[in-house]
Amino acid sequence: QVQLVESGGGLVQPGGSLRLSCVASGFTIHMHHMGWYRQSPGKERELVADISRNGGITNYGDSVKGRFTISRDNSKNTVWLQMNSLEPEDTAKYYCHRRGGDYWGQGIQVTVSS
After folding, report:
1. What digits encode the pLDDT tens for the residues 26-46?
2. Which of 22, 43, 49, 90 could be bridged to 70 by S-S, CB 3.0 to 4.6 A?
3. Measured between alpha carbons, how far is 21 from 73 in angstroms, rounded to an integer?
4. Each residue of 55-70: pLDDT tens digit?
5. Of 50, 53, 40, nearest to 81 (Cα)?
6. Interior CA angle at 15 toward 24 and 97, to 5°?
């Protein structure tokens, strides 16, 4: 059974940092393109970042370029999202995604507020 479990979210002040983790089970991530998406109330789900199978190619949404970094360790079956210089506009539920088969995690809330 494919599972994606996110952790690391929470409340942070503007300018702060968080690191999200996505631990996969039921499959090995080395065969899959992985990504992070986010959705806030009243808005469509949007791409935050994605990463190729070997980590050599990354892609970022325009609003997070230069602030967020996606990475992966296939030996740990884990994908991370390092989020720096967080802004209130980054407040959303963040989802881990496996492109093959379109699998999603349950999501984790990130709130940026003073």
Report:
1. 999 999 999 999 999 999 999
2. 49
3. 11
4. 999 999 999 999 999 9
5. 50
6. 20
